[in-house]
Amino acid sequence: MNILFFIISLSFLVLVHEFGHFIVAKKSGVGVEEFGIGFPPALFKFKKNGTIYSFNLLLLGGFVRLAGEDDLNVKNGFLSQPVRKKILITIAGIVMNFLLVYFLFSFGYLVGLPDYSPKVANVTILEVLPNSPAAQAGLNLGDRLVELKTKTKTIALTDPNTVRNLFSRYAGEPVNFLVRRGDQTFWRTITPQKTNSPNNGPLGILVGSLTIIKKSFPANFYYGWVRTVDITRNFITILGSFLANLFEKGKGLNQVVGPIGIFDLYNQMRLLGLGYLFQFWALISLNLVLINIIPFPALDGWRLATYCYEGLTKRRVSARVDTIANQVGFVLLILLFVAVTIKDIIQLK
Known about the structure:
Elements (H helix, E strand, L loop, with lengths): L1 H26 L4 E17 L2 E16 L16 H29 L1 E4 L6 E6 L4 H4 L7 E6 L4 E3 L6 H7 L5 E7 L2 E7 L14 E4 L1 E4 L5 H27 L13 H14 L1 H19 L7 H14 L5 H30 L1
Antiparallel strand pairs: 1-2, 3-10, 4-5, 4-9, 5-6, 5-7, 7-8
């Protein structure tokens, strides 16, 4: 049931994207041959106002099939439309995912969203690296480290900026940690590792000060927008770093997770509460926004770039060039998907 809910949730994010293309195409007078929920084989379908609506077995998002996507001679077809309409239809999916980010953050504030604040004095785990001392001890994202206890002293843990050096001091020595998880408090014995890596600390965790913030209605819609803007700005920086490191000894690949990694993160967020899930799905939807806006073949960003070129030069990109570019881009995306999935499987072992 948990896997099914995860698949349905992820499919909803993709379906929202496709609905954006669908609704703007309809409003623009472009023919929509089919709007599908999931992918064939079809369970059932019906036709209304010239459009086939299908409900399909493979519940992995959805699709929109526009009239004249590859034929200029189709009446009311997509390719025969003015550049302005083609751009609007193309960016509609991206806009819908961005609006979904905003609403997820806004309604998330009503139940309480996690917030990382230097004003809060606690040490909360924000990430647990696979096969690290913390992972082997069963620590999870969201756990709060309260105390460190050795044979001779007990130290309260309140400042995430100083704990790395503190943990390094006891490298190779079993240390008891008082951990708070929700309403539970328990001890874990962990042996910090000796390491000089900036990406892998003594416990193999990323920590920060975290608190849960709630906002009342209708103030939640204002703060939802503020959070959307802030997170988007941060994500653009992260995306730039990823693209810069993608081909540098596989560094960029380590920053990416595939379906298996996303499901593992989802499981951790699910255990932490509804507010974490709102934030989780908002971040996934934002990922779809930023990835799709990249002008890479087979993505919406590529189509947007070609239509902008058409608008500026009054010349269409060659159909042959466009087809070959999209085929190559699709293959490269599949290879990246496979590589990331293999990496996720290796890290989970």
